[in-house]
Design a protein that fits this description.
Length: about 400
């Protein structure tokens, strides 16, 4: 039985990358692989027999003393604790391959030479752009930013790219500078999985060799989603209420178009967006955080889902989930979103940041015959079943592992 070591900073479903971490392990377990986990201790963690190997909790934003903050900063840059505990885990679980998700800050890139030094092939899924951009997103308060591609990581400090904080930006700049000098990622990662072709091309632009990158799109198990093709009367946004998500642009566009809009989610911009909504006439409805069956009903009863992002999105699961529920998506021409939407077939594309173009599109979709919107929803569901399915993800992943010399029981 081949052994897979799954590595991620959080061992609970905190966000999309954490969900992929768990789902990937579950899929491999179904294929006959034995799973182990390496992560950080946290009160919300799923109970795991591997938790005795997990590193101590390191959570930014908590009320730590100055000495504790200094200790955390050193761990962000290089964690000897993570190295020590990972070596202990590998003595008890000699992994055939390690698959990493988000390791930055809490585990640190210092774990990579431990894995490669013990001869373990190392695969990382690039859920963000951290292995190129020190600040993860190629985004700061001024908008999309790629200054570090040809310049110094000191740009991170100059522009306060991390949470608009001088201290946090300085720590991240030091971490990125050190591991850039050590060539930690490129030297010790066997392969980088990228869920969007956009990310593949962007990482290549920043110097990553194409042969080290592998496009494997995200998938959705369509059978777990009940489609509802009858179009509703409102447009829906679900996700974080954060500046890069373009929700302010969506509010302005919806007000200009005079269409009904519902927003499901919370985030740092919640109050500011509700103030903007009031100034615009208050027609948008803020529903707060929704999940599970409650969120599914909101999607199923909508006319279309809107994703107005203004940063380099990777391959948003919200698009695939909306498609699986039989809803077309209106998406911004930004990052990996356009490669998921076939214009006029399963949704529509507009210029990111343009409230005027989005308003025009919302008006047009609102005026379409229900039969036309329903046809796009059916095409969206069919497309997910044909292009973004579980079997394709498993096949591509096992092929990648086989290239690294690790085969599943099914290959034997």
């Amino acid at each position: 039985m081949p052994k897979l070591l799954n590595i991620n900073s959080y061992h609970y479903r905190r966000g999309g990358s954490d969900a992929v971490y768990f789902d990937h392990a579950e899929l491999m377990g179904q294929m006959g692989w034995e799973n182990a986990y390496f992560s950080m201790n946290h009160p919300k963690n799923v109970v795991s027999r591997w938790s005795r190997y997990f590193v101590d909790e390191l959570e930014f934003g908590e009320a730590y003393s100055l000495p504790q903050k200094l200790m955390m900063a050193t761990k962000v840059v290089y964690s000897f604790e993570a190295q020590r505990k990972l070596k202990s885990l590998l003595r008890d679980f000699p992994a055939d391959v390690a698959h990493l998700h988000c390791i930055y800050h809490h585990l640190s890139p210092s774990i990579l030479p431990v894995l490669s030094g013990l001869g373990v092939p190392v695969v990382m899924t690039a859920h963000d752009l951290k292995i190129a951009c020190p600040a993860y997103k190629m985004l700061n308060r001024g908008g999309v930013c790629e200054r570090c591609k040809t310049g110094s990581v000191l740009n991170v400090i100059k522009h306060r790219c991390v949470r608009d904080s001088l201290g946090a930006s300085a720590v991240v700049a030091l971490e990125s500078g050190l591991h850039g000098a050590l060539n930690t990622y490129r030297k010790h990662l066997s392969k980088v999985v990228v869920p969007s072709r956009f990310f593949l091309e962007k990482l290549h632009e920043w110097g990553w060799p194409r042969e080290q990158l592998r496009y494997i799109p995200n998938y959705v198990d369509a059978g777990r989603y009940e489609p509802a093709y009858q179009p509703g009367s409102y447009f829906l946004y679900f996700g974080r209420l954060a500046p890069e998500k373009g929700v302010a642009t969506l509010l302005r566009a919806a007000a200009q178009a005079g269409v009904a809009l519902k927003l499901a989610g919370t985030g740092p911009e919640s109050d500011a967006l509700q103030d903007l909504n009031a100034r615009l006439g208050g027609r948008a409805e803020f529903l707060g955080f929704r999940s599970g069956a409650d969120l599914h009903r909101l999607v199923q009863q909508s006319r279309a889902v809107v994703l107005p992002s203004e940063w380099y999105e990777n391959a948003p699961m919200s698009v695939l989930e909306s498609f699986a529920m039989g809803k077309p998506v209106i998406g911004a021409r930004m990052g990996g979103i356009p490669e998921m939407i076939d214009e006029g077939q399963n949704g529509w594309i507009f210029e990111s940041g343009s409230s005027a173009e989005l308003a025009s599109l919302l008006s047009r979709v609102a005026a379409l015959p229900d039969s036309r919107v329903e046809a796009l929803g059916r095409a969206a569901r069919t497309g997910v079943e044909q292009r973004f399915h579980r079997a394709g993800y498993v096949e591509a992943t096992l092929a990648l592992y086989a290239e690294l010399g690790v085969r599943s029981n099914a290959d034997e």
